[in-house]
Every structure is written in structure tokens, then in C-alpha cells.
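Homework help board

Subject: predicted structure for assignment chain

Our instructor gave us this sequence and asked us to write out the predicted structure in C-alpha cell form, then describe one feature. I got the C-alpha cells but I'm not sure how to describe them. Can anyone check?
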Amino acid sequence: MTDGETSRNFITDIIDEHNASGHFKGRVHTRFPPEPNGYLHIGHAKSICLNFGIAEQYGGLCNLRFDDTNPAKEEQEYIEAIIEDVRWLGYDWDDRLYFASDYFDELYEMAVELIRIGRAYVDELTPDEIRAYRGTLTKPGIESLYRNRPVEENLALFEKMRAGGFKAGEAVLRAKIDMSSGNINMRDPVMYRILDAAHPRTGNKWKIYPMYDFAHGQSDSIEGITHSICTLEYEDHRPLYDWYLDNIEIFHPQQIEFARLNLSHTVLSKRKLIRLVQEGQVRGWDDPRMPTISGLRRRGYTPEAIREFCEDIGLGKVKGVVALHKLEYHLRQHLNKTANRVMAVINPLKLVIENYPDDLVEEMDAVNNPEDESAGTRLVPFSKVLYIERDDFMEDPPRKFFRLAPGREVRLRYAYFITCTDVIKDDRGEIIELRCRYDPATRGGSAPDGRRVKATLHWVSAQHAIEAEARLYDTLFTVEHPDSDRDTDFTEFINPDSLKVVDPIYVEPHLRKARAGDRFQFERLAYFVVDEDTTAEKLVFNRTVTLRDQWRKAQKKAARAPRKRQRKAKPAR
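My C-alpha cell output:
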């Protein structure tokens, strides 16, 4: 939420109704319950902002709780990364950091209670048989032959499961609900399975672990959660959430579902993100091409931009895909206000000012951020030999090219007017150097006689420039919906040009003191961030986002193409 604003959506409408009726006695207590089997991504950011934001909006509380019910897939690395990501986004849970494993003893007793009242049983069908007996969306399930065991036998068998008397897959504990239910989740779902894996927090104490659906609602209840906010795929699980709480007869939170975030030109399936990492398609979970929060942070995204994006896209109950340019829009908006400007040349072309004194070095006053007067100014050295962008010169320019060309005058930012007088080429005919003359009367970038130029170029002094490396990132996938084609593996759409390394680039000496995480606008080029690979000897910059929306420009061009073809088509005879 933005400062001073109150966000309204269908979830706040539900909470308002609860508060008006006295339900939950006016309390609002939410939770963010990640599973520590991977890194958080931009979709999780939406849930984080929602859960913590709702609590803040109503003066309530929000817990951070790890759903650590599957030790075979969970790692301490993921727990630490999740904690860092949530804090980086700007949220705090005070002393309310919990784990589902904190409640293993209580959950076990709840399962025993369901057995005692005849609503749970130990099933010895094989996993394949359980799947086959479950039925389909159009065909009811079949009851297990173990479904009607006596209570005492089920209690003994469940204790045997706990003691390690069964191997994995030989027995499970199931809820006894309705095998003919139209909701497959209610067809005697598995509550506990056997896992022969040590748990990071409970060690070898347990041989059985609760399923998410069993641990979820009861953990909410134990913590006093009032509103259990989930993504839409759990809507069909809500009757089961309610059934467990009602049958165990404990405090009953309200589960509310919203549509999860899907973002164009990426994948947000944790299974697919794990594949990208394990197959070496990316350099790790924090690769700047990844949609993970750690990847976005390394690319130069700000928590403010992500929070504004999550607020802007709002909440709904209908699945959809949000265009990547919307996320980039909020990033540009924030960086435009906060990122200091510097000059850097990525594709250098040498420029010599012939009438400039050989040994003279001037310091030009440059504005750090025109959007923030408090950012002040800096001094940038100017000398006879400079680097400019190769794209800023054309020997035979088209009509609408206003930058440097033979005989043309342009402005060097913060410095002088210059005119190109000669072009130096190598034996292959490649341009390697420009010769120019400057007008000493135009210091600071304006002419006393009032004449104007149509282009202003950035530059760095060759004598003072620092060599650095630039990593130019693009989208990881070439198509908007890389995981929507059932016949083609999503990795087939990986963009071969998603990373281009340029080394060296030249940056002004002001950046010598830059540190990992510092964000800048390279004037006329893009926003960049100093990467953590930076050393005392070498600066490394990641391109965060271009200055202009390249996607919308491409979309407009694509939309115009059919109309152009139509105009060019010859009329039928």
C-alpha cells in the first residue's frame, strides 16, 4: 500500500463484514506460510505484501510460518533465504516465527482423536491402488477394504507407523469422509505418510509426517489465525480445511482464496524453477534472469517497486497473466526518483578534440539526480581524448538521425559543443577514431550566440575512465507464455540472448567507490546495479531495466504490421 492510502478489495470486504458482526472479536491475524523447498519468487511477493499489508491495514498481526512437513525436500538454505527475502521486502513478524514442526506433537494427538471418533483409519493399500480407488471427476471412488477397521486396531497401527514398524508406502493414515464426494479432495484424503528422512529441526523423532492439508488448518488454529489467505488452487481444498477443524472441534479460521500472480515471459512453477537451476540453464536461484526475489534483488529491483507493483495489480478471483512491462514500469518510476545519474560508455568509440590543449583537464559540474535536489552534484573530468557510444555516430546518417556525423555539431553533456571534422578507419574500413573541434565559448553546454543543437551525447574521459564489466540481461524466455504449450518443453523457449557480457565498458571515475547493491542510471542507456561479483580490481554492473519500455514499443510495432500489409495489398481485379 502507498503511504496514507487504504487498499480495498474483496478480502477487506470480508474482513469488514467479520468486524461488523463481531466475528473473531474484531481481531485480524494473518500468516505467510512458505514451504522451504525452494526460493521465493515474485508470485510469493504478492502473497507476502497481501498478508502483511492486510494485518498492517487493520492494526493486526502477521506470522511467518514455515510449512516444514516434508524433510525430503526441505533445506536450511531455503529457510534462511526466505527470511532474508521477506525482511528485504520491508516486513517484520517480531517474535512470531513459527514452523509446522513446532506442532508435530499436537497434530499427532489431533490425528489420534479423529481415529478415536471413527473418522480416520490406517490404510495399507499401495500408492497406486489408492490413486486407482480415488476415482475421477466423473466417476466416484471406491472404498478401501481397510476402511472399516475397528478403532483400537487403527490406533495400534498408527502407533506402529509412528514407531517405524512400516516401510515408506506400506501404510498411510486417511480421513474417513466420503468416497463418492464430487470434490475429490474429500475422498478419504491422506493425513499422514511414512518418510524415512531426518527432519532438520526434529531429527529422527518422527517416522511419519502430516500432509499439508492436515497441518495447514490446524497450525492456523493453534496460532489464532483469523483469516487464512491462500491462492486460488486451494479453493477446492477449503471444504477439507473446514472438515478437519470442525471434526477436531478447535478454533476455526476463515480460509479466503485469491488468484495467484502469473507473469509474462517467465515461469513461476517452483518445480520448473528448480529445473532451471539444476540443469544449469541459469547461474543459481539468485541469477538476475530468475523471477525469484533474490534474483530480482541482484538485478537491481527495489522492494518499493515490487510492493507498488503488487498493490497496482490488485486482487481477483480470476486467473490471468500480468504483462512484464507493468512490473518494469514501477521499477522505472522508483529508480527515476532514487538512482543517481552517471556517465558510462558501453560500446566505446574514441573521440579526439583536436583544438583542445593536450595537458588540460577540466572538471565539469554534473547533476546527480534531477528528480532529487538533495542528491547534489559531482565533478566529472574532461580532457582531449574521450569515449562516446559508437551508436551515437553515423558516417552517412539517415534523415532523422540527429546525433554526431561528419560536419555536424552536437553537445557533450555538461561540457562543450563539438563538430566532427574527420573519421579515422583501420585497414578493414572500420571506424576507430573521430576527430572533432570544440567551441570554448560553449562551456557548460550552451552557446552565447543562442545557436542550438539537436543532440546531446554522454561521454567519459579516456584518461580518467574506469574499466568495468556490464552484464546486459534480457527476459529468460522469448515468448509470453513459455509453459502454456503442452507439446513443447518450456526450456525450448529459453532466450539464447538473455545475457550478454560486455567487457570492458568505461565509466566515470566517480564510480570508483561504488559497492555491491548501489543503483545508478547510466545516462541515455539504462538503469544498472553493482553486482556482488565486484572486486577491488573490477567493477561489475548488471543492467536492471532499460530507460524506455521496449516491450510496449515492440507490441505497438507488431500491431501496426498487419495494418501496413493491408494498406499495401493490391485490390482484387
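Reply (TA_rk): Your C-alpha cells look well-formed. For the description, you could write something like this. The two ends are 61 Å apart (CA to CA). That's the kind of observation they're looking for.
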